Amino acid sequence: MPREVLHYLQISEGLTVVDGTVGAGGHSQLILRQLGDTGTLIGFDRDAMMLRLATPLLRKPNVILVQSSYSLAREALAERNITSVDRVLLDLGLSSDQLADRTRGFGFDAGGPLDMRFDTQLGQPAGELLNTADRSRLIQIFREFGEEPFAERIADRIVTRRKQGGLQTAQQLEECIRAAVPDAAIAKSSRNPATRVFQALRIAVNQELQHLQHMMTDVLPQIMTPGGIVVVLAFHSLEDRIVKSAFKGHQGWQVLTKTPVEATPAEIRLNPRSRSARLRAARWKPAA
Fold it and tell me: Residue 24, Cβ neighbours under 10 Å: how many?
């Protein structure tokens, strides 16, 4: 939703902008065109691979790229003597480059080892979590982060599979899920039956909701310039709920989107993944 993102960000020359999820650099490139040479763009991404892809496109004197979570923006800005920022963009969607990476296991189509970490130097890989967590923990992850209706059946199948050698690859996990989900449920849905579980594991491994909650409630109020604007693109209800609650829960936010902005039918035809996108924007107007 690049047009909607730029509309709500209201970029002008000379501003200081944070792109909290640089990805392959698509949004950052558009922002830079409007920032001019006098503005500053600070781009964050936990994934070193994505920063390597974005760097050639964003190699300008007024761009700072940081391999870190956006939830650590306050510390990263302070290290660079930046006291506040005028605009923040958080695009919470998973990049197609990450989904296609056969070494990380983000997507069931690409396969690969079950890692799923954005930063492969930190945290517990998804495969290790699957092969060590007890049944109740697996059920909790699948229900809480994936809203998976067959969480118990899938967890039972995984526990059984572990006794037969464990789960090492995305393909093995998908096969395990397919065996657990009733055929009737698979036939009724147009989505791969593994979609919710893969989402849940990725969220759990990367602690995505904790990072977002911390950013929305603790970090943004401390780094925003009065009058500054935040735009967030969420791709599932758990993220959107956190964003909506944070904007409504602090009197310093003036909400600019009464209801979340959705992708147009034309964009969905070009980019089917945008069908689940929900954009919310707010202006920071703290009490004097």
Answer: 19
